[in-house]
Protein backbone atom coordinates (compact mmCIF):
# COMPACT_ATOMS: atom_id res chain seq x y z
CA UNK A 1 0.00 0.00 0.00
CA UNK A 2 2.82 2.35 0.88
CA UNK A 3 4.43 1.78 -2.47
CA UNK A 4 1.19 2.14 -4.32
CA UNK A 5 0.42 5.48 -2.70
CA UNK A 6 3.90 6.76 -3.37
CA UNK A 7 3.51 5.73 -6.98
CA UNK A 8 0.33 7.75 -7.16
CA UNK A 9 2.25 10.67 -5.75
CA UNK A 10 4.98 10.26 -8.35
CA UNK A 11 2.51 10.02 -11.16
CA UNK A 12 0.68 13.14 -10.04
CA UNK A 13 3.98 14.99 -9.79
CA UNK A 14 4.80 13.87 -13.31
CA UNK A 15 1.46 14.86 -14.72
CA UNK A 16 1.38 18.26 -13.11
CA UNK A 17 4.99 19.20 -13.54
CA UNK A 18 4.86 18.37 -17.25
CA UNK A 19 1.50 20.00 -17.71
CA UNK A 20 2.36 23.62 -17.26
CA UNK A 21 4.13 26.20 -15.16
CA UNK A 22 0.86 27.63 -13.98
CA UNK A 23 0.25 28.74 -10.46
CA UNK A 24 -0.68 26.63 -7.48
CA UNK A 25 -3.36 24.06 -8.02
CA UNK A 26 -5.53 24.01 -4.95
CA UNK A 27 -7.55 21.02 -6.00
CA UNK A 28 -4.61 18.72 -6.25
CA UNK A 29 -3.97 16.79 -3.07
CA UNK A 30 -2.71 13.55 -1.76
CA UNK A 31 -4.93 11.01 -0.08
CA UNK A 32 -5.04 13.10 3.06
CA UNK A 33 -2.99 15.16 5.45
CA UNK A 34 -3.44 15.18 9.19
CA UNK A 35 -4.56 18.37 10.89
CA UNK A 36 -2.32 20.08 13.41
CA UNK A 37 -3.09 18.75 16.88
CA UNK A 38 -2.89 21.61 19.41
CA UNK A 39 -3.01 19.15 22.32
CA UNK A 40 0.51 18.03 21.46
CA UNK A 41 1.74 21.62 21.60
CA UNK A 42 0.11 22.21 24.98
CA UNK A 43 1.46 18.93 26.31
CA UNK A 44 4.98 19.86 25.21
CA UNK A 45 4.90 23.35 26.70
CA UNK A 46 2.01 24.60 28.81
CA UNK A 47 3.25 28.19 28.42
CA UNK A 48 2.29 28.25 24.75
CA UNK A 49 -0.76 30.34 23.91
CA UNK A 50 -2.55 28.49 21.14
CA UNK A 51 -5.65 30.00 19.56
CA UNK A 52 -7.53 29.42 16.33
CA UNK A 53 -7.66 32.51 14.10
CA UNK A 54 -8.67 33.44 10.57
CA UNK A 55 -5.73 33.71 8.21
CA UNK A 56 -4.88 34.20 4.55
CA UNK A 57 -2.57 31.63 3.02
CA UNK A 58 0.18 32.13 0.46
CA UNK A 59 -2.07 30.81 -2.31
CA UNK A 60 -4.63 33.51 -1.52
CA UNK A 61 -7.16 31.26 0.21
CA UNK A 62 -8.83 32.29 3.42
CA UNK A 63 -8.34 29.66 6.03
CA UNK A 64 -8.04 28.86 9.71
CA UNK A 65 -4.68 28.88 11.42
CA UNK A 66 -3.34 28.14 14.86
CA UNK A 67 -1.70 31.21 16.29
CA UNK A 68 1.03 30.08 18.61
CA UNK A 69 2.57 32.66 20.92
CA UNK A 70 5.73 31.60 22.69
CA UNK A 71 8.60 33.08 24.66
CA UNK A 72 10.89 30.61 22.87
CA UNK A 73 11.78 28.96 26.14
CA UNK A 74 11.36 25.19 26.21
CA UNK A 75 10.00 23.64 29.40
CA UNK A 76 10.72 20.05 28.37
CA UNK A 77 14.51 20.32 28.52
CA UNK A 78 17.24 22.64 29.80
CA UNK A 79 19.00 25.06 27.48
CA UNK A 80 22.79 24.91 27.20
CA UNK A 81 25.57 24.46 27.94
CA UNK A 82 27.29 25.70 24.78
CA UNK A 83 30.92 26.68 25.37
CA UNK A 84 33.22 24.75 27.69
CA UNK A 85 35.56 27.03 29.67
CA UNK A 86 38.67 24.86 29.72
CA UNK A 87 40.31 22.43 27.28
CA UNK A 88 40.38 19.86 30.08
CA UNK A 89 36.57 19.71 30.33
CA UNK A 90 34.44 16.85 29.10
CA UNK A 91 31.37 16.73 26.86
CA UNK A 92 28.97 17.65 29.67
CA UNK A 93 30.53 21.14 29.85
CA UNK A 94 29.74 22.04 26.25
CA UNK A 95 27.27 21.57 23.43
CA UNK A 96 27.65 20.23 19.92
CA UNK A 97 28.94 21.33 16.53
CA UNK A 98 27.62 20.15 13.18
CA UNK A 99 30.08 19.50 10.40
CA UNK A 100 29.94 17.43 7.26
CA UNK A 101 26.77 15.64 8.30
CA UNK A 102 28.20 14.64 11.67
CA UNK A 103 27.52 15.80 15.21
CA UNK A 104 30.61 16.57 17.30
CA UNK A 105 30.71 17.21 21.05
CA UNK A 106 32.17 20.62 21.77
CA UNK A 107 34.30 19.44 24.68
CA UNK A 108 37.74 20.66 25.74
CA UNK A 109 39.41 18.25 23.35
CA UNK A 110 37.39 19.54 20.38
CA UNK A 111 38.41 23.13 21.13
CA UNK A 112 42.03 22.07 21.61
CA UNK A 113 42.07 20.35 18.24
CA UNK A 114 40.28 22.94 16.13
CA UNK A 115 43.40 23.91 14.17
CA UNK A 116 43.84 20.35 12.95
CA UNK A 117 40.08 19.74 12.64
CA UNK A 118 39.76 22.68 10.23
CA UNK A 119 43.33 22.37 8.91
CA UNK A 120 43.95 26.02 9.73
CA UNK A 121 46.64 27.09 12.20
CA UNK A 122 44.80 30.37 12.92
CA UNK A 123 42.41 28.49 15.19
CA UNK A 124 43.37 28.77 18.86
CA UNK A 125 40.47 29.54 21.16
CA UNK A 126 42.37 29.02 24.43
CA UNK A 127 45.26 30.53 26.36
CA UNK A 128 48.46 29.07 27.80
CA UNK A 129 46.57 27.76 30.85
CA UNK A 130 44.00 26.05 28.70
CA UNK A 131 41.23 28.54 29.43
CA UNK A 132 38.82 28.91 26.52
CA UNK A 133 37.86 32.39 25.27
CA UNK A 134 34.12 32.60 25.82
CA UNK A 135 31.90 35.64 25.32
CA UNK A 136 30.65 36.48 28.77
CA UNK A 137 28.32 39.45 28.50
CA UNK A 138 25.19 40.19 26.53
CA UNK A 139 27.09 42.91 24.66
CA UNK A 140 29.78 40.39 23.71
CA UNK A 141 27.16 37.99 22.40
CA UNK A 142 25.56 40.77 20.33
CA UNK A 143 28.92 42.05 19.05
CA UNK A 144 30.22 38.62 18.14
CA UNK A 145 27.08 37.98 16.07
CA UNK A 146 27.58 41.15 14.04
CA UNK A 147 28.35 40.62 10.36
CA UNK A 148 31.39 42.86 10.71
CA UNK A 149 32.69 41.11 13.78
CA UNK A 150 35.92 42.74 14.91
CA UNK A 151 39.30 41.12 15.39
CA UNK A 152 38.69 41.23 19.13
CA UNK A 153 36.27 38.31 18.83
CA UNK A 154 38.56 36.19 16.69
CA UNK A 155 39.05 32.82 18.37
CA UNK A 156 36.08 33.18 20.68
CA UNK A 157 33.47 30.63 21.53
CA UNK A 158 30.23 32.60 21.26
CA UNK A 159 27.28 31.96 23.52
CA UNK A 160 24.23 33.99 24.39
CA UNK A 161 22.67 32.98 27.70
CA UNK A 162 18.96 32.48 28.48
CA UNK A 163 19.14 35.39 30.93
CA UNK A 164 19.60 37.76 27.96
CA UNK A 165 16.25 36.95 26.38
CA UNK A 166 13.70 37.64 29.06
CA UNK A 167 11.40 39.70 26.81
CA UNK A 168 11.29 37.66 23.60
CA UNK A 169 7.82 36.85 22.32
CA UNK A 170 7.32 35.09 19.02
CA UNK A 171 4.10 34.41 17.16
CA UNK A 172 3.73 31.62 14.63
CA UNK A 173 0.75 31.13 12.32
CA UNK A 174 0.30 27.59 11.10
CA UNK A 175 -2.58 26.38 8.90
CA UNK A 176 -4.91 24.08 10.85
CA UNK A 177 -5.48 21.90 7.81
CA UNK A 178 -2.41 21.62 5.59
CA UNK A 179 -2.81 21.77 1.81
CA UNK A 180 -0.78 20.04 -0.86
CA UNK A 181 0.32 21.90 -3.97
CA UNK A 182 2.16 20.19 -6.77
CA UNK A 183 4.71 22.95 -6.97
CA UNK A 184 7.00 23.15 -4.02
CA UNK A 185 7.76 26.40 -2.21
CA UNK A 186 11.45 26.90 -1.57
CA UNK A 187 12.59 28.63 1.57
CA UNK A 188 14.39 31.88 1.58
CA UNK A 189 18.14 31.41 1.18
CA UNK A 190 20.07 30.22 4.13
CA UNK A 191 23.52 30.61 5.52
CA UNK A 192 24.19 33.91 3.78
CA UNK A 193 24.34 36.33 6.65
CA UNK A 194 26.63 36.40 9.60
CA UNK A 195 23.78 35.66 11.95
CA UNK A 196 20.49 33.92 11.60
CA UNK A 197 18.65 37.18 11.63
CA UNK A 198 21.07 38.69 9.13
CA UNK A 199 20.31 36.15 6.44
CA UNK A 200 19.44 37.64 3.11
CA UNK A 201 16.74 36.06 1.05
CA UNK A 202 17.89 34.38 -2.12
CA UNK A 203 15.11 31.88 -2.78
CA UNK A 204 12.01 32.87 -4.71
CA UNK A 205 8.54 31.58 -4.55
CA UNK A 206 8.01 29.74 -7.80
CA UNK A 207 4.25 30.01 -8.26
CA UNK A 208 3.30 33.41 -9.40
CA UNK A 209 4.08 37.01 -9.85
CA UNK A 210 3.84 38.90 -6.58
CA UNK A 211 2.06 41.77 -8.30
CA UNK A 212 -0.86 39.53 -9.18
CA UNK A 213 -1.19 38.12 -5.72
CA UNK A 214 -4.38 38.66 -3.81
CA UNK A 215 -4.34 39.60 -0.20
CA UNK A 216 -1.71 41.24 1.94
CA UNK A 217 1.99 40.98 1.28
CA UNK A 218 3.23 37.76 2.79
CA UNK A 219 6.38 39.07 4.42
CA UNK A 220 8.47 42.17 4.78
CA UNK A 221 11.37 40.39 3.12
CA UNK A 222 11.66 40.43 -0.64
CA UNK A 223 10.97 36.84 -1.54
CA UNK A 224 7.91 36.54 0.66
CA UNK A 225 8.79 33.06 1.74
CA UNK A 226 9.68 32.75 5.40
CA UNK A 227 13.00 31.22 6.34
CA UNK A 228 11.50 29.45 9.35
CA UNK A 229 11.03 25.74 8.63
CA UNK A 230 8.50 25.17 11.36
CA UNK A 231 8.25 24.70 15.09
CA UNK A 232 9.01 21.91 17.47
CA UNK A 233 6.04 20.74 19.55
CA UNK A 234 7.44 22.78 22.46
CA UNK A 235 7.10 25.96 20.37
CA UNK A 236 10.81 26.42 19.67
CA UNK A 237 11.57 27.44 16.08
CA UNK A 238 13.10 25.03 13.60
CA UNK A 239 15.31 27.65 11.96
CA UNK A 240 17.06 28.00 8.64
CA UNK A 241 20.51 26.40 8.57
CA UNK A 242 22.98 28.28 10.76
CA UNK A 243 25.45 30.25 8.60
CA UNK A 244 28.34 28.15 9.80
CA UNK A 245 30.74 29.22 7.05
CA UNK A 246 30.45 32.84 8.10
CA UNK A 247 30.79 31.92 11.74
CA UNK A 248 33.90 29.90 11.06
CA UNK A 249 35.49 32.39 8.67
CA UNK A 250 35.53 34.91 11.53
CA UNK A 251 37.30 32.27 13.68
CA UNK A 252 34.38 32.09 16.02
CA UNK A 253 32.42 29.05 17.08
CA UNK A 254 28.75 29.34 18.05
CA UNK A 255 27.91 25.87 19.34
CA UNK A 256 24.45 24.38 19.73
CA UNK A 257 23.40 22.70 22.93
CA UNK A 258 22.72 18.98 23.06
CA UNK A 259 19.14 19.64 21.92
CA UNK A 260 20.47 21.38 18.79
CA UNK A 261 19.58 24.90 19.92
CA UNK A 262 21.27 28.16 20.75
CA UNK A 263 20.26 31.73 21.44
CA UNK A 264 20.50 35.01 19.68
CA UNK A 265 19.03 38.04 21.34
CA UNK A 266 16.56 38.74 18.53
CA UNK A 267 15.18 35.27 17.89
CA UNK A 268 15.62 33.88 21.34
CA UNK A 269 16.31 30.18 21.64
CA UNK A 270 15.97 28.25 18.36
CA UNK A 271 16.97 24.90 16.88
CA UNK A 272 19.32 24.12 14.00
CA UNK A 273 19.21 20.36 14.47
CA UNK A 274 16.77 17.77 15.80
CA UNK A 275 18.81 15.57 18.11
CA UNK A 276 15.95 13.68 19.74
CA UNK A 277 15.90 15.75 22.93
CA UNK A 278 12.74 17.85 22.50
CA UNK A 279 9.23 16.58 23.28
CA UNK A 280 8.03 13.97 20.82
CA UNK A 281 5.01 11.74 20.27
CA UNK A 282 5.73 8.05 19.87
CA UNK A 283 4.02 6.30 16.95
CA UNK A 284 2.39 2.95 17.68
CA UNK A 285 3.62 1.37 14.45
CA UNK A 286 7.31 2.09 15.03
CA UNK A 287 7.37 5.04 12.62
CA UNK A 288 9.67 7.90 13.60
CA UNK A 289 8.13 10.05 16.40
CA UNK A 290 6.26 13.30 15.73
CA UNK A 291 8.48 16.25 16.73
CA UNK A 292 6.82 19.34 15.28
CA UNK A 293 4.94 21.06 12.47
CA UNK A 294 6.23 22.77 9.35
CA UNK A 295 5.02 26.29 8.53
CA UNK A 296 2.58 24.79 6.02
CA UNK A 297 0.96 22.74 8.80
CA UNK A 298 2.25 19.35 7.70
CA UNK A 299 3.62 17.26 10.53
CA UNK A 300 7.36 16.87 11.00
CA UNK A 301 8.73 13.56 12.21
CA UNK A 302 12.20 12.57 13.39
CA UNK A 303 14.84 11.35 10.95
CA UNK A 304 14.87 7.70 11.97
CA UNK A 305 12.17 5.22 12.88
CA UNK A 306 12.21 3.20 16.12
CA UNK A 307 14.55 0.60 14.66
CA UNK A 308 16.98 3.22 13.38
CA UNK A 309 15.91 3.03 9.76
CA UNK A 310 15.74 6.02 7.40
CA UNK A 311 12.37 6.89 5.87
CA UNK A 312 11.83 5.67 2.31
CA UNK A 313 10.65 7.44 -0.79
CA UNK A 314 11.07 11.02 0.39
CA UNK A 315 10.35 13.75 -2.14
CA UNK A 316 12.57 16.79 -2.66
CA UNK A 317 11.12 18.51 0.41
CA UNK A 318 11.81 15.40 2.55
CA UNK A 319 8.14 14.45 2.61
CA UNK A 320 6.22 11.28 1.85
CA UNK A 321 2.86 9.85 2.75
CA UNK A 322 1.56 6.73 4.38
CA UNK A 323 -1.82 5.28 5.24
CA UNK A 324 -1.76 6.29 8.90
CA UNK A 325 -0.35 9.79 8.82
CA UNK A 326 -0.96 11.02 5.29
CA UNK A 327 1.58 13.45 3.87
CA UNK A 328 4.35 14.47 6.31
CA UNK A 329 8.02 15.42 6.49
CA UNK A 330 11.04 13.79 8.07
CA UNK A 331 13.85 16.03 9.33
CA UNK A 332 17.33 15.65 7.94
CA UNK A 333 20.05 14.05 10.07
CA UNK A 334 21.17 16.29 12.96
CA UNK A 335 24.69 16.77 11.56
CA UNK A 336 23.41 18.34 8.34
CA UNK A 337 22.35 21.69 9.91
CA UNK A 338 19.05 21.21 8.05
CA UNK A 339 15.46 20.23 8.79
CA UNK A 340 13.43 20.08 5.59
CA UNK A 341 14.22 21.40 2.09
CA UNK A 342 10.97 23.02 0.99
CA UNK A 343 7.24 22.88 1.68
CA UNK A 344 4.39 21.42 -0.35
CA UNK A 345 1.60 23.32 1.34
CA UNK A 346 0.55 26.95 1.48
CA UNK A 347 1.84 28.90 4.46
CA UNK A 348 0.13 31.70 6.35
CA UNK A 349 0.91 35.22 5.26
ZN1 LIG B 1 21.08 30.17 15.15
ZN1 LIG C 1 7.12 8.87 7.40
Element-by-element helix/strand order: HHEEEEHHHEEEEEHEEEEEEEE
Distance between the termini: 36 Å
Q: What ions, cofactors and ligands are bound? A: zinc ion
Low-pLDDT stretches = 1-29, 190-222
Quick one: how many beta strands? 17
- Describe the main β-sheet briefly: 8 strands, mixed
Mean pLDDT: 85
Radius of gyration: 21 Å
Q: What share of the residues lie within helices?
A: 10-25%
SS class? alpha+beta
Task: Trace the largest sheet across and list its strands.
Answer: 11-12-9-8-13-14-16-15
Task: Supply the number of helical segments.
Answer: 6
| General shape | globular
Assess the beta-strand content as a share of residues. Answer: 15-25%
Report on this model:
Helices cover 13% and strands 20% of the residues. It is α+β, with helices and mostly antiparallel strands. It has an eight-stranded mixed beta sheet. The site of one zinc ion has 7 residues, from strand 11.
Q: Care to give the gist of this entry?
A:
The chain is α+β, with helices and mostly antiparallel strands and 349 residues long. The protein is built from 6 helices and 17 strands.
Which helices and strands appear, and what pairs or packs with what?
Layout: H1 2-19, H2 38-44, E1 49-56, E2 62-70, E3 96-99, E4 102-105, H3 108-112, H4 114-117, H5 138-144, E5 156-157, E6 170-175, E7 185-186, E8 230-232, E9 237-238, H6 244-249, E10 252-253, E11 261-264, E12 268-271, E13 290-294, E14 299-301, E15 319-322, E16 326-330, E17 342-343
Parallel strand pairs: 5-10, 9-12, 14-16
Antiparallel strand pairs: 1-2, 2-6, 3-4, 7-17, 8-9, 8-13, 11-12, 13-14, 15-16
The chain binds zinc ion (2 copies).
One zinc ion binds at residues 196, 239, 242, 262, 264, 270, 272.
Amino acid sequence: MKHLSFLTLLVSFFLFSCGSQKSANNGNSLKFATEVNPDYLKAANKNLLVTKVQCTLSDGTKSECYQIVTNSTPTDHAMGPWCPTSISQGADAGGIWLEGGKVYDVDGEFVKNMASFYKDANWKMYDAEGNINVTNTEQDCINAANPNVGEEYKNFCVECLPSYITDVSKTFLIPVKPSFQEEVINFMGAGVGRTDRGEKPSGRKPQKDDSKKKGPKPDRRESGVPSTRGIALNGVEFSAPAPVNNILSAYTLAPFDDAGGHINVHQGYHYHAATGVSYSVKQEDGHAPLIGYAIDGHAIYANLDESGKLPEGLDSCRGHDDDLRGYHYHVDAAGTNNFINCIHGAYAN
